[in-house]
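Reopening this one. Same input as before:
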Amino acid sequence: MEKNRFMDLMAEGKMTRRQMTKALASVGLGLMTVPVMKRPAAAAVNDITYYTWASYEIPELHPAYFEKYGGSPDPAFFADEEEALQKLRSGYTPDISHPCTYVLPRWRDAGVIAPIDTSRLTHYNDIFPELKTIKGTFDDNGVYYVPVDWGNSSILYRTDLVEVEEESWMLLFDERYAGKLAVYDAIDGAVTAAALALGIKDPFNMTDEQIEQCRQLLVKQKDLLLYYWSDNTTIEQSLASGELVAAYAWNASVVTLKQQGIPVKYMNPKEGILTWVCGLVLIEGGPGDEEAKYDFINAMSSPEAGQFEIESYGYGHSNMKSFERVSPERLAELGISSPTALFAQGVFLSEVPPETREKYITMFEGVKAGI
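Same output, byte for byte:
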């Protein structure tokens, strides 16, 4: 992505964290060098530090906190959770952070997060039950995170250019569309999609035999791809022009293309749609005011905050009541009209054991290199 394009999207408030992770590297910027383009907030009376993804610090996502304290927490940003964990291990001590569930076991085992007193959570009973019982987010010592947002990874395709008899991840391997397909340039995209297409039940902890099956399928796929993508604005442009007919994509791209009047559909594959869930954690030893920490968690998990996130970012929110505040038409446009149905069929992103992850990386890099 060109640097000017990146900065324009930042200024317009159209860059979400998942775009930024890859885009920052492509324009030669670090997160701490990127100015916050949203309106500045006054310092809160009871200062706490919020360690998060860029664009998640804005007042609209914690309106009750902003109103009570007259400002927002001090923000600090990370590009991904691995970077954040290493900084926390080195002694950095903010008060609250915003990781996703697939890294929670590592954060908990590293001793950088503390249990949360759910009795102090105003909206906890309104959170989707499916999001409160994800493996690795709690243990005998208590609950370690409060779900805030969720979204999907699936196939976005042109309904006027693709014939789909049965929605399946196999579309990304369909020879009829050679040269008009694209997949996310990451093992969490390409390898996971291949595993699901093959019917592998646990794509996050595959055997060596299953990894080899994925490798063979990915080798065949490589010749069918127009490209591997790292910036989702690229696939949006290619789908709009018809250069691509189908691609691995995130929810936000659905919104962008439908707003342009492009006939697209976001697939709910028979093998399961990929679902990520992120939430707030208390950092062990965080020095900020305890009441302010819980006020912030309550503000982020409120239906008002949820409405803004759904309507503006295109992602789902953890609070069930937030969906009541969004029009059925908008929810349908985003493909999240029935969250419980998505959760029931979805495949929640999980942590890949380090040794297995290294095997995935080696295999995928070999496929791309033609080895």
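So the earlier flakiness isn't reproducible anymore. For the record, The chain has two domains: 38-144+275-335, 151-273+349-369.
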